[in-house]
């Protein structure tokens, strides 16, 4: 019997499913432990997080723990993989456009912000020795691991939950990021793919069945706010330091890991029209929704009207 | 008598100076060309060995400095680190494992989902994937 748990974490919602329903409590404990560790290491909004301490080091080399080292290593790999479209050095740009706290605190502020096109410093400036646990962030550079850390958390949670359960199958949904481990239920995990992860199960979108791997969705329709009459969103184009221009409003991508799926989905938003070609070339099934609602699918993603 | 004694002293001094002058003349004689050549070759060999050793040392030193300070580089072992190499067929999730014994570098290219990614199940959704 399927076990299901829902709870908040990392500023979003967690949905945990296990096929061994009687082991749900153990799985949840494992997931909560992983999420707490990720938050303590990678949060941009916690004064005591390792990431904030590293950002404040003003160019000094600092010691970091293995979890932040792993997250940073992944963020550098993602930056290379996406040719810099998903770059951890956009922290300052996010702060300058007003996203410097949890969104619940950002939205009520209505005052104008000074928008200035200024490219992010670029991931190449980060000096990371993951083996020795040493990090140097040049002065003026602020790291943000936002989407990569969340996707990494989903991957780690799925593995940890499966290990805690000791068999069967596990799905962890963390915001829009879904990671699966172990054996899926008969027919696969049923997933509604849509603009907002908070949408009701019978809301608009496409329902697909997944058997393993991961699925992530990035969208400009959530985490939006208005400052000085200007509508802003949280996906920053590192080339400009400003919110990415909106060709696609939502992109969902399937991949071998949630980190890869999330990176590809976020990069697709940044890239705009060139995204389908890249996704197709890398064999990543994807569903891209234009701002006018038109849907484009690539690399074997089921047609919208197909029964899956 | 005193004058005679003084004269004898003067002669002794002259005699000693002559010997010294003779010694100086002996030492100032230029060495044979073969000796000079051998000496020069030995000196050249010493310089060659010294320069070669110093060069090798500097190459090693600069290599270590480059490895440790190349920007954006992530070391490639333990703690889920990745490297700049993208050839190994490990999944990215492996790279972020908490298992410190792993050292396989994560691939730079994204890993596609497993074969048969989309199942044929029917029914209502169990979970939602959307922007967050």
**Helix-strand string of chain B:** HHHE
Uncertain stretches of chain A: none
How are the strands of the biggest sheet of chain A laid out side by side?
A: 1-2-6-7-10-15-16-17
In DSSP terms (H or I, runs of 4 or more residues), the helix count of chain A works out at 8
Overall pLDDT confidence of chain B: 66
Task: Tell me, rounded to a whole number, the average pLDDT of chain A.
Answer: 90
- Quantity of strands of chain A, as a count: 17
Helices and strands of chain B: which structural class? mainly alpha
Helix content estimate of chain A: 25-40%
Distance between the termini of chain A: 22 Å
Multimer state: heterodimer
Count up the helices of chain B: 3
Order of helices and strands of chain A: EEHHEHHHEEHEEEEEEEEEEHHEE
Sheet with the most strands of chain A? 8 strands, antiparallel
Largest sheet of chain B: none
Radius of gyration based on Cα positions of chain A? 19 Å
Low-confidence stretches of chain B: 13-22, 75-102
Q: State Rg of chain B.
A: 42 Å
Description:
Chain A has 308 residues and is of the alpha+beta class. In chain A, 30% of the residues lie in helices and 27% in strands. In chain A, strand 4 (127-129) and strand 5 (134-136) form a beta hairpin. In chain A, helix 1 runs antiparallel to helix 6 and helix 6 packs antiparallel against helix 7. Chain A is globular. The mean pLDDT of chain A is 90. Chain B has helices spanning 2-27, 33-69, 92-95; one strand spanning 127-131. The chains are: A alpha+beta (308), B mainly alpha (132). Chains A and B meet through strand 2, helix 3, strand 4, helix 6 and strand 7 of A and helix 3 and strand 1 of B.
């Amino acid at each position: 019997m399927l076990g299901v748990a829902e709870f908040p974490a990392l500023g979003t919602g967690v949905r945990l499913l296990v096929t061994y329903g009687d082991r749900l409590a153990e799985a949840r404990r494992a997931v909560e432990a992983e999420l707490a560790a990720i938050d303590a290491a990678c949060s941009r909004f916690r004064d005591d997080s390792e990431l904030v301490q590293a950002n404040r080091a003003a160019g000094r080399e600092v010691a970091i723990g293995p979890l932040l080292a792993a997250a940073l290593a992944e963020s550098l790999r993602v930056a290379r993989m996406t040719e810099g479209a998903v770059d951890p050095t956009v922290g300052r740009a996010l702060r300058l456009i007003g996203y410097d706290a949890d969104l619940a605190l950002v939205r009520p502020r209505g005052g104008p912000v000074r928008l200035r096109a200024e490219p992010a410093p670029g991931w190449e400036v980060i000096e990371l020795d993951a083996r020795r646990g040493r990090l140097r962030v040049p002065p003026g550079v602020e790291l943000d691991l936002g989407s990569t850390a969340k996707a990494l958390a989903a991957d780690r949670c799925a593995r940890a939950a499966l290990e805690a359960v000791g068999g069967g199958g596990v799905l962890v949904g963390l915001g829009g990021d879904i990671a699966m481990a172990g054996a899926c239920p008969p027919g696969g995990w049923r997933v509604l793919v849509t603009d907002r992860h908070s949408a009701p199960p019978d809301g608009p979108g496409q329902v697909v069945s997944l058997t393993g791997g991961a699925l992530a969705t990035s969208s400009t329709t959530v985490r939006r706010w208005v400052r000085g009459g200007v509508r802003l969103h949280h996906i920053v184009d590192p080339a400009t330091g400003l919110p990415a221009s909106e060709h696609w409003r939502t992109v969902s991508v399937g991949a071998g890991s949630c980190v890869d799926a999330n990176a590809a989905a976020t990069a697709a938003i940044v890239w705009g029209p060139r995204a389908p070609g890249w996704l197709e070339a890398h064999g990543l099934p994807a569903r891209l929704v234009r701002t006018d609602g038109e849907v484009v699918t690539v690399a074997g993603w089921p047609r919208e009207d197909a029964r899956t | 008598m005193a004058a005679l004694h003084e004269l004898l002293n003067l002669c002794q001094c002259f005699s000693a100076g002559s010997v010294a002058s003779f010694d100086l003349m002996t030492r100032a004689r230029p060495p044979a060309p073969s000796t000079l050549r051998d000496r020069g070759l030995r000196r050249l060999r010493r310089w060659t060995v010294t320069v070669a050793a110093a060069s090798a040392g500097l190459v090693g030193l600069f290599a270590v400095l480059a490895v440790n300070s190349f920007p954006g580089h992530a070391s490639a072992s333990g703690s889920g680190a990745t490297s700049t190499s993208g050839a190994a067929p490990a999944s990215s999730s492996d790279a972020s494992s908490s298992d410190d014994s792993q050292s396989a570098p994560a691939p730079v290219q994204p890993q596609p989902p497993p074969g048969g990614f989309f199942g044929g199940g029917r029914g209502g959704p169990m979970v939602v994937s959307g922007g967050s």
